[in-house]
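Q: Could you fold this chain for me?
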Amino acid sequence: MGFDQLSNMWTAVFPLAVLLYYFFRKKYVTTTISSTLFWEKSMRETKVSPYLKNLQRNALFYLQMAAFLLFLFILLGPFLPKESVPTSHTVFIVDTSASMGATVGELSLFESNKEKIQELAEQRAGSAISIITTGKEPSLLVRKETDERAVLAAINQLDMQYEHEHMARSIDFAKSIALQDGADVHIFTDFLDRSVFMESENGITWTVHTNEKPLANIAIEKFGAVATMNGTEAIVKLSNQSTSKQPGKMIIKNGVTGETLSEQDFFIDAGADLLLSFKELPTVSAIRAVLQVQDDYPTDNEALILIGNASSEVIVDSQLHELVKKAFEAIGLTVTTGSVSEMEMARDQAILVTNDPSFLREGTEPILLMGRNDSSTEPVSGMVQTVNDSLFTIASIKDIYVSALYPPFEGYATLATVDGKPFIQRSQRGDIVVLSDIALTDWPLHPSFPLFIWSSAEMLRSGSDNVGAFIPNERKAVLTSGSEGIEIFTTEDKYVASYPDGGSFVAPSKPGIYKMIDGGTEKYFSVQLELGEKIVSHGSGYKQGFVETDDAGKEEGKNMIGWLFLLPVLLLLLIEWEVQRRRGYPN
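A: Sure. Below is the predicted structure, expressed as structure tokens.
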């Protein structure tokens, strides 16, 4: 309960004045004195505690004070808070991230929130309702929909996307559709800090529904594996986010077949981390770590990794132009410069970029050769012509200028020419050869240069059946071998999606290992949880923002109850009148 008119507190002077009046008013008591000898003694007895005696056995005083206090209570404008809808537009922001899979009781947070959303939608049937789901790209399922059946159907279709919530983006999205007419926005998540509402908007109220119960969670924080001469080695980092020591078992499985490769029991202290290592595992293409433990969040109890030529490290020959290194850095790879000896040591663990043709005959993995240090160039003039190859799918290089070329390699396939002479070639192993120095072209001035570098890196890594790792719903171009498109399946051969080209590829939402069918070639890729989704949070719900007012200036969301006390006041006045009528004033 609250008070809407605290400024009327000054009226408390009236009951105080009545109290003082009863303290000091004269009161006469009829007394029979048998002798004048006892008169003085009797007078002394009547003067004992004169102020308190004025209040004793005085029904009229208590009735008057009760009436005054009730009047004061009414003037302060008492009210009870109530659920209110500031406008006719309600917006639901639904967190669909992986952490909403944590269970509270028998239901997950996501399923519990769906029930709350459905209940609110039924209470506001006929009002405009919008539903937004979270993610890097927030989705608007329905906008200002007044059809109750359409709203309930959209709620029933809600499903977890496992992608990090990026709640600030969803809030900004909600503001963009609510600022004009105002809205009552309800956010359903596990925890949301008040700092995201640093700037408030008039007309929008925010109600945050959270998980208020602490949850026990032991997560696979990190998982890595590498192929060695003795098989495969794996290491797992566990994180105990609970407040007690927990036992468990870690099981390492073949990521494709599900065969158990190794097991290990463990105990992990409260709030501690634990490293588990597994050595001399069989050589496999994918490994899955499965954590068996009693906690409230099962989604982060599995992790997986593909083993193959998926290196993100590039070693650029120190003799090459600095712009080559900058181009690899621009596409997000880890780039270092090295000498010939350093490149020889890491030639099978990283992508090599050099102008030394000897690397074409060494090692087992293809390289990118840019120029030749064993020959001299010859001047050329003319337009660049390319064949239909996936290397040029992302960007065309026909508009670049090349002033000179090195001699071509015998037996290599020619992918691009200048004036009929080979400019870009590919070996049978998959090496990509650019027969010119960057300084002899204007290629770095064109957007196609970093795109060609990206395509080359993807092609050099495509020798294995490993496409790479993705996060849920990640949009990322993948290099395809033809124009037939690609199809995505689970490891159990369940169809997931199709894409007409690699540029439109979107990773599945659910973590796991998937198969990509590209022109009859079967490759694997993984979808992994982001690190931020391996933590479960809790906190109190709250309301934020300003409540709308109507034309009379009264605030909505307040149930005024002062009028309920008018009848008791009238009843007290009636009783006062009856007391004075019967007893009269004392003489």
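A (continued): The two ends are 46 Å apart (CA to CA).
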